[in-house]
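Exercise: predict the fold of this chain.
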Amino acid sequence: HFNDFHGRLQAPSGDEGDEANWSGGTVGFAGTIEQLRAPFGDDASVLLSGGDNIGASLYASASQQDAPSLEVLNALELDAAAVGNHEFDRGIDDLQDRVRGIADFPYLGANVTVDGAPIDEGYTLTEVNGVTVAVIGAVTQETPALVDPAGIAGVEFGDPVEAVNAIAARLSDGSEAN
């Protein structure tokens, strides 16, 4: 699990004082994920993001509307991501149409509605070592204060705990997830 990736596409600088150096840049980030997965294999691990994969990004990604960041996460085979407040930076239409169109993984917003309708199911199911696991995503209720209100007209950000608990209760009968 990671969060706040923010399109940090960069190469390590080699400068000991440079923030990018500690993580080895994007290659270091990806290498760490692969290193952590290696002992378990592809079927026994899940890669999740808590959101803010895009927005507030470095130029290499921001100049291309964060498509390169989404492509890196696709290459890493991200299993699912919660929508973060930055996924709404360019508005709900951008998230629903362009961002989700590029992402090979589901973005989850259990507590987000547009004109009263959920933006998605709020959860996804994934297999881990033969066990079906439900992953539920939500975003902070403070999102309207963090993004341009013009892009989120009609969007409501409900209580994330309430939304997650409602989905978990619905799934607790074991018919969809173990």
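Check your answer against the key: Strands lie at 48-49, 80-82, 107-108, 112-114, 117-118, 123-128, 131-136, 155-157.
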